[in-house]
Structures are given as structure tokens and as C-alpha cells.
Design goal:
Elements lengths: L4 H15 L6 E2 L15 E7 L2 H4 L7 E6 L5 E6 L5 H12 L10 E3 L2 H11 L3 E14 L2 E13 L5 E15 L4 H22 L1 H7 L1
Parallel strand pairs: 1-4, 2-5, 2-6, 3-6
Antiparallel strand pairs: 3-4, 6-7, 7-8
């Protein structure tokens, strides 16, 4: 008697691809890993989410993007912790520095004026401001990540020392059978790569070492 397991498995995978999976619509940004420069200066990090759609009230601060079912219907993707993206990104950057230097707790704010004031209040040697202008993933079979992120470094007096930006609509590939799972992994990996690249930019690295 032939086993029906293979056809059943194919049907289940096909159903997931068509209807989406709510469990995969939560990305845990705490799993993002980055490489940050080593050095002696103490560091504080704040992040401001400046996405236009957020400022207009079209999305919540925890939104990462969308996954679409086989019919193209979008399902919103949010942070697994339900925390704002800015708070999660600030935490990622702070953790990237490890325990080899003095670090202030990660911070996130709605505007740059408040963020800069909070950074100056830490009294740290170097103060990093991460600005998110675009950050949106979109998945059907393939995944795109549309991002525009800037890292700025300030001194204790609030003077801008260095700035670096990366902007791209990145094609992250896809997986026909498990597109949402592929999207989650690739978005987290790419987010880490972009932040690592920004912190490793020569102008940024020079001020953090």
C-alpha cells in the first residue's frame, strides 16, 4: 500500500504558501547580529524612526513590512516583541559593541531634537544617532527590503563628527514553498549586514576607535 504522506505534505506546504502563516509574520529583531568597531570611547546609542508612513499615521512603530499570500493579499509583519522598530534597532547596535567598552542603555525617540538631547545627557565620549528614513519588507514569493538608514556620530558637546548612509531596494531572493520563512531569515540577516556596514564605514570607525 502506497503512503499518502508525500501528497499530503505537498498540499500542506501549498496551503501555507497560499494563505500565509501568522507565526511567520513576526520578526524577532533581537536575533539580528552586527559587527561594531572595538575601541576605548564610551558609547551611547539612540534611534529615531523617521518613516513617512509612520509620521502620517499609516503604520504603527512596530511595523516591519508585509508578507502576501498566493493571492497577493498583504499581511502585516511586526516585531516579535511588539516594541517599536527604533527601540529594537538601538538595542541591536548597543549589543553589537559587546562588553569591551562602557555603554549607555539603548534609547529611541520620535524626533531627532529629543534624541540628541538625551544622547548629550549620557555624558559618553561618543554618541550614535541612527536615523531610519525607510525600512519596509515586502514578500510574495521573493522578498524585497526597501531601506534608507543613516548613522551619525557626535561628541560630548553634540558636535557632528561623522555620518554615513545606505539606501537600497534590496532583492533578498525567495523560496517558492516557504516564502514567509525565507523572508524572516533574510530580512534579519540583511538588517544586520547594513548596520555592520554603516558602523564599519571608515569615517564612522575612525570616530569610534
Amino acid at each position: 500500500m502506497k503512503s499518502n504522506r508525500t501528497p499530503i505534505a505537498i498540499i500542506l506546504i501549498g496551503t501555507l504558501a497560499l494563505t500565509g502563516c501568522a507565526a511567520w509574520n513576526k520578526y524577532d529583531l533581537r536575533n539580528v547580529t552586527i559587527t561594531a568597531p572595538s575601541g576605548l570611547p564610551s558609547v551611547a546609542v539612540a534611534c529615531v524612526d523617521q518613516r513617512e508612513t509612520l509620521r502620517q499615521g499609516d503604520i504603527g512603530p512596530e511595523l516591519i513590512g508585509v508578507t502576501r499570500d498566493g493571492y497577493g493579499i498583504p499581511y502585516r509583519v511586526k516585531t516579535a516583541t511588539k516594541s517599536p522598530v527604533a527601540k529594537e534597532i538601538a538595542g541591536v547596535v548597543v549589543r553589537g559593541f559587546g562588553s569591551n567598552r562602557k555603554l549607555a542603555p539603548p534609547m529611541s525617540y520620535a524626533d531627532t531634537t529629543t534624541a540628541k538631547a538625551a544622547l548629550r545627557g549620557t555624558g559618553t565620549d561618543r554618541q550614535i544617532l541612527v536615523l531610519i528614513d525607510r525600512y519596509n519588507s515586502d514578500t510574495l514569493i521573493r522578498t524585497e527590503l526597501d531601506y534608507s538608514i543613516t548613522v551619525q556620530v557626535y561628541d560630548t558637546q553634540g558636535r557632528l563628527l561623522a555620518s554615513a548612509s545606505r539606501t537600497k531596494i534590496a532583492d533578498l531572493g525567495g523560496n517558492f514553498f516557504l516564502p514567509a520563512l525565507h523572508a524572516r531569515k533574510s530580512v534579519l540577516r540583511t538588517t544586520g549586514d547594513v548596520l555592520s556596514e554603516l558602523l564599519s564605514a571608515p569615517e564612522i570607525r575612525a570616530e569610534l576607535q
